[in-house]
Amino acid sequence: MSSFYAEVLGQNGSYKFFLDNEWRESASGKQLAILNPSTNAPVYSVQACTKAEVDEAFQSAKRAQKTWARTPLWRRAEFLHKVAALMRENAQPIADVLVKEVAKPAVDAYTEVVRSADLISYTAEEGLRYFGEGKLLASDSFPGQDRTKLCMASKVPLGVVLAIPPFNYAINLAVSKIGPALMAGNSVVLKPPTQGSVANLLMVQCFAAAGMPPGLINCVTGRGSEIGDYLTTHPLVNAISFTGGDTGIDIARKAGMVPIQMELGGKDAAIVCADADLAATASHIVKGAFSYSGQRCTAVKLVLVEECIADELVPRVVEGVKRMSVGMPEDNKQITPVISESSANFIEGLVRDAEAKGATLCTGPFRREGNLIWPVVVDNVTPDMRLAWEEPFGPVLPIVRVKDTQEAVEHVNANRLALQGCVFTKDIDRAIAIADAMETGSVQINSAPARGPDHFPFQGFRDSGIGSQGVTNSLAFMCKTKTTVINMPKPSFTMG
């Protein structure tokens, strides 16, 4: 590990947590082991923070926020640019940790860190524009009113933002919350995912080394089952930005009046029309379904193909899948172990259910070694199978044959998960009509779903999320409107 990160590591080999610009070991005396998904063996450990330490983190963040809110915008932007530069300079150690913590292929892990630095830089510049503008209203624009009031509307910070990213993009989805929060004048309490904690701690060191004021970001580690509810219901929380699964629904129920920004699961469907370019469609589907072993909220998780072309499309998809490399993330294989044994068991259960009910495993018998699952294409999936509705979050692609696109759209709209979708057709008018009918947060035309570029709006409908993300939308979430009204005497003259 680079000397840049030396102080993050404790003498007992466990990584410290970060509070008030100090790297600390928890008073609990306990550590949380992090398993390498490739081996299921412990690879790192982090502090198991106490509720008292959570209290201290929020109190520190509250103090820091008051000062940070008065910091000029250009200084906030300058600070974020320094952070981005440090992340680029120290990207490799963070990427190396991601390989071991979440089994992300080495090249993809490095790309994620650099992409995250770019997101921070963009946020700094967009924040200058967004928060640099106010609004002036005159009272006489409303019927019956004289010009006796001027209303100045400005954007002010929310306060302390609780940021909770997921394991699959532990760095990118952390900075997508932290960057807008800081640019808006907020402070942050960061709760990293267990798998991804060490990468987050190394990322926080980049913020600290950039000259961060004490308490602006505090990072607490530990099991969500032990401190999760305490964090999300803490009286000093002023906003929550969460990315993950069904846990988010529980958080939303308990959050009360606290503003929430959430992106949860997805069952992103690809609707393939009879006139689609099947070679290109198959290529997009394979990449969209199996990148990072399908552990992406925006992965293609269902194909709804018109019956008349299904027999031609499926072999093309299977051919592309069979060319994919399978193995360890250090070797940059395309299919790597999924995040945990419980996840692998869940994925296998979905496949076994479909197979038992008559589906066809086009890629051959189900194959698994530990958490490593060989990619599976499951054809002839029907609505009575769990794979038709549930999100595997692994290298599994179910295919449902439909009589027409209306049946496909009805299936999409019947699912409680409604994050993204895509449509493949050569007819742009048809594509727009289908996209309009799909009740999902985003629809891609002739490409697989994707979150980025990071400044595009990104949101889910129904149980897939609350609010919208993307840099500008996240900046908007991280502030509230305040109005100051100047009262003036009624004009004493009239225009002749």
Automatic annotation (TrEMBL):
GO terms for molecular function: glyceraldehyde-3-phosphate dehydrogenase (NADP+) (non-phosphorylating) activity; lactaldehyde dehydrogenase (NAD+) activity. The keyword NADP applies. SUPFAM superfamilies: ALDH-like. It catalyses: D-glyceraldehyde 3-phosphate + NADP(+) + H2O = (2R)-3-phosphoglycerate + NADPH + 2 H(+). The active site is at E263. Pfam families: Aldedh (PF00171). It is an enzyme of class 1 (oxidoreductase). Keywords: NADP, Oxidoreductase. Residues 23-483 form the Aldehyde dehydrogenase domain. It comes from the Eukaryota. This is NADP-dependent glyceraldehyde-3-phosphate dehydrogenase. InterPro entries: Ald_DH/histidinol_DH (IPR016161), Ald_DH_C (IPR016163), Ald_DH_CS_CYS (IPR016160), Ald_DH_CS_GLU (IPR029510), Ald_DH_N (IPR016162), Aldehyde_DH_dom (IPR015590), ALDH-related_metabolic_enz (IPR051020). Gene3D superfamilies: Aldehyde Dehydrogenase, Chain A, domain 1, Aldehyde Dehydrogenase, Chain A, domain 2. Its EC number is 1.2.1.9. The keyword NADP applies. Belongs to the aldehyde dehydrogenase family.
